[in-house]
Amino acid sequence: MFVLIAAAGLGLLTLLVIVFAPNIRKYAAGGVCKSSARLDGKTVLITGANTGIGKETALDLAVRGARVIMACRDVEKGEEAAASIRASYSQAQVEVRELDLADTCSIRAFAQQFLREVNHLHILINNAGVMMCPYTKTIDGFEMHIGVNHLGHFLLTSLLIGLLKRSAPARIVVVSSLAHNFGWIRFHDLHSQGSYNSGLAYCQSKLANVLFARELARRLKGTNVTVNSVHPGTVNSDLTRHSTLMTIFFTVFAMFLKTPREGAQTSIYCAVAEELHSISGKHFSDCAPAFVAPQGRSEETARRLWDASCELLGIEWD
Question: 89, 196, 202, 269: which is the annotated catalytic residue?
Answer without folding.
Answer: 202
